[in-house]
Model the fold of this input.
Amino acid sequence: PMQQQKRQPELVEGNLPVFVFPTELIFYADDQSTHKQVLTLYNPYEFALKFKVLCTTPNKYAVVDATGAVKPQCCVDIVIRHRDVRASYYGVMDKFRLQVSEQSQRKALGKKEIIATLLPSAKEQQQQKEEEEKRIKEHLTESVFFEQTLCQPENRTASSGPSLLTVFLGIVCIAALMLPTLGEMESLVPLYLHLSVNQKLVAAYVLGKYFGFCKCLLATSVIWET
Done:
């Protein structure tokens, strides 16, 4: 049988993913060490790539080796220097475009845009970042406190409900009030379960103290007594 030759898949122009790090360059006017930045282009493919670096404002930057090649499954560093640091450029966003193509072809297989920004001070940026983080933490703390405050009334309501002992005591008092009074002859309840008026008054007092029915139950006890 004839062996099938491996064919490289057709590469569509502009659709090849480009892997570069970082995707944003930040230069600080008061920190000369940041005036030189490095872009790393990765080639994870089985074929070599050639690249070209373009910029919207080439007069502000110097790109070392703006064109070159990267071998399969290798990477290459591209050095970019900011050479025109001035206050009028603070906060202005420039763009670099990194185009890659196959070595044997001219058409661009893929491209990636990198944003470059010049800021006045690294310390100010750090302070702003810390202040922003502080505001976020304070906001989260307030949110948690607000949620806890909302939950507290519900918890208090749940905890302020009658305990099992109180409920049991109430049931005993109600049962005591429902039992016949001493002296009642026409009752099917055994004699030892007949309670005196004083015992019923005590039960009514206890029930009223816990449940707010004292007057009503005392009145009922008096009626039973008569």
